[in-house]
Amino acid sequence: MLPKELLKKVRRIEIRTSHMVRDVLAGQYHSVFKGRGMEFEEVREYQIGDDVRIIDWNVSARYGKPYVKVFREERELTVLILADMSGSHLFGTAGQLKRDLMAEVCATLAFSAIRNNDKVGLILFTDRLEKAVPARKGLSHVLRVIRELLYHQPAGLGTDLAGGLEHLNRATKRRAVVFVVSDFLAVGYERAIRIAKRKHDVIPIIITDPREEHLPDVGLIELYDSETGRTLLVDTSNARVRRLYEERSRRAADERDRLLRRMNIDAIHVRTGESFVEPLTRFFRAREARR
């Protein structure tokens, strides 16, 4: 039985994100994710203008006149959400934790999927596999996905992005649209994401907080690493300290972005305290324009 406060939170996210799907993202998800491919439906007699490459020669030989294969788009998709539950997502300085932002983004994607009659699955990971929810359809299933994102208490605190992707590669046989939702504060995942991209449509959603990029000038502060438990006393009044912090953050982000560009992977960037609707909309429009 879930606590009343959590049920209220699930309900608030359901109302907020379902409105976004209906009012803002309507049609964009469908136009971008058009299905895995073409599925054979029937044969019919050849008509002038038909592509000779779709002639069914066996049927044509049987009936003594040309017949062609008719295909239809295989509309149903499997959408998988690979969500990073590591300790770094319990951070937030803009009125919102990164984990709460992740839950709203994932809920929006899940509602978009079921509105389009697609299946949705969820994989939660930290420095280990936390939970795998098989892909299914329906509102009750999406509400379960949201509850897991909000209610699950991770056994691990660290981040093993490569491990999460490797589980995806082992467990998911059919092609899927995979949203990897993480702050990407990890290393050593290049091979795993490259393998995943060969089989799936991989879309990273990178979650950041403003204070991960810039330190304010507020004197001495104690920084706590929620993944390792270590603390560090930092003098933010020192301009050199602030500059080195920003340079290190920018260098890590540049390396991540270059890695994804080399693999021709488009990423969506969202930030705590800001609307994620515009980045999602911008991504969908760019995808549709390229199609």
Full CATH superfamily name of the largest domain: von Willebrand factor, type A domain
How many helices does DSSP assign?
9
SSE order, one letter for each helix or strand: HHEHEEHEEHHEHEEEHEH
Helix content: 40-55%
Structural write-up:
The chain has 291 residues and is of the alpha/beta class. The chain has two domains: 4-22 and 75-290, Rossmann fold (3-Layer(aba) Sandwich), CATH 3.40.50; 39-72, no CATH class. It is 42% helix and 23% strand. The protein has nine helices and ten strands. The protein has helices at residues 4-23, 28-32, 57-63, 98-115, 139-151, 161-171, 190-199, 239-262, 277-290; strands spanning 37-45, 67-74, 78-84, 119-125, 129-136, 177-182, 201-208, 220-224, 231-235, 268-271. It has a six-stranded mixed beta sheet with strand order 5-4-3-6-7-10, sandwiched between helices. The chain has a two-stranded antiparallel ribbon with strand order 1-2. The model has no long low-confidence stretch (mean pLDDT 89).
